[in-house]
Amino acid sequence: MKIGILGFQGAFVEHERHIGRLGYEPVVVRYPQQLDDLDGIILPGGESTTMGKLLCCTGMLEPLRNKIQEGLPVWGTCAGMILLAKKLENDPVRHLALMDITVKRNAYGTQIDSFDVSVEIPKVSPDPIPLVFIRAPYITESGANVEVLCKVEGHIVAARERHLLATSFHPELTDDSSFHRYFAEMCKKRE
Amino acid sequence: MGKYELNKNLAQMLKGGVIMDVTNAEQAKIAEAAGACAVMALERVPADIRRDGGVARMSDPQMIKAIQKAVSIPVMAKVRIGHFVEAQILEAIGIDFIDESEVLTPADELYHVDKTAFKVPFVCGARNLGEALRRIGEGAAMIRTKGEAGTGNVVEAVTHMRQISDDMRRVKNAGAEELMTLAKEFCAPYELVKYVHEYGKLPVVNFAAGGIATPADAALMMQLGSEGVFVGSGIFKSGDPEKRARAIVQAVTYYNDPLKLAELSENLGEAMSGLEIKTLESKYAERGW
After folding, report:
1. Reported pTM
2. A35 vs chain B: nearest CA distance in angstroms?
3. Do B34 and A53 touch (CB under 8 A)?
4. Is the per-residue pLDDT at A191 higher than 70?
5. Which of the residues A15, A78, A95, A187 is marked catalytic?
């Protein structure tokens, strides 16, 4: 199984490591033609404005949006969640605009407010999962078809809508592969 | 997970990106729109500091706050080497990253800031592995080459990046019994030398800085192993800052694609005028140790 990781900017190498460790083939994606034989794609953490800009100027935006609309499983971490959101609370810009969520960028504040916690998410793993929040966004509103997977201090930080998965935090920065395994299962179901 | 780990993690999010020097909110917006992954707020770009001479200090907090308000990407700012009070001030206004920078006039001839005393992350310059590991030992969450800021001349950044890589190869290939002697030779903490021996890389993200002026310069530094670039005077001292900024952002993503780089290098207008290193009155890279 081939899982793509958008390789424009940010922490894509960290995702590559997890995917490889689970025995799947990671593919760093920088060109539209690479989208054709993927079983899923991860939009990594980084700066969403940078990635959004590169999506537009490289001609990747439309092909990627089409693939996801045709059913390609996608997982956005942090900046990736912002790329997926249909609405941003504090920004007029939209990127892929595919997931029925409203996201607040830099919702916790500046770097001094970055934090980590350990939380049980039964649908993803029987054990507590370490969650790392770096200048993180969270979901302020979610549509009827969106399943909330995890809340931290009352805010939605992980959610799924059919084959679309979004997390505010960065599983790729920890040694815990639970979320990568969960996403890989989503990709397998599509096969 | 401690604050230091979270700070190293923020540096990981900047990888593959371009951090641009900006002197006001308007430039910050241009940088963000061009795809910068962070901005460095400062009153004068290094080329102007070099030209004006005198003592260069931390920027006016009001100007930094205006830039924080103008953009949503991380905002960095510089403090003088060893000036921990300037660092306290920047931390108090919620800066995302502090650059303890040789571009400003050093405040302490002997000591750098004890970066472990702060919650915010620090980035520091280095010319070789020993210097990089000393700064990491003091708590830096990110390293950049010193290069020679404000010259538009990439030669020093190349020298420093090659030196760091060279030193790392030596440590990696050394036997376990050689490590303490290497730590002594590099004047570097033993535990960090052991880390480099084991993993073959620095324990923090490493960017290139100091003299990068073109998309080709940025791609050169990426091919030499840097994980992203700082561009100081190179953008807003050029003929068409917006276009050059966009081109450099893409050059860092497509650093291994010469055809794309050719396309990005076309018709960028005038690059900043450069300086020959030999003619410089003072080399900023020699500040700090």
Report:
1. 0.96
2. 17
3. yes
4. no
5. A78
Distance CA A54, CA A6 (A): 11
Question: Which tokens in the block code for residue B68?
Answer: 């924080």
* Phi, psi (rounded to 5 degrees) for B164: -60, -45
pLDDT tens, residue by residue, B105-164: 999 999 999 999 999 999 999 999 999 999 999 999 999 999 999 999 999 999 999 999
Confirm or reject CATH 3.20.20.370 for domain A2-190, answering yes or no.
Answer: no
Per-residue pLDDT reduced to its tens digit, B227-238: 999 998 999 989
What is the Cα–Cα distance from A162 to A147, expressed in whole angstroms? 9
SS3 B149: coil
* Nearest-by-Cβ selection for B120 from A54, A90, A111: A111
Contacts of B120 in chain A (CB under 8 A): 111-112
Map tokens 């960290």 to a residue.
A14
Where does the pLDDT of residue B270 fall: very low under 50, low under 70, confident under 90, or very high at 90 and above?
A: confident
Domain boundaries of chain A, sorted by first residue: 2-190
Q: Are B145 and B164 in contact (CB under 8 A)?
A: yes
Q: Which of B6, B67, B259 to mutate to test the interface with A (most CBs of A within 10 A)?
A: B6
Phi, psi of B106 (to 5 degrees): -60, 145
Q: Which residues of A touch B16 (CB under 8 A)?
A: 7-10, 12, 46
| Residue corresponding to tokens 């004047």 | B187
Q: In the structure, how many helices (H) and strands (E) does chain B have?
A: 13, 8
Residue type, A191: E
If pLDDT is split at 50, 70 and 90, which confidence band does B1 have?
confident
Active site includes A170? yes
Q: How far is CA B283 from CA A15, B248, B275, in A?
A: 40, 25, 12
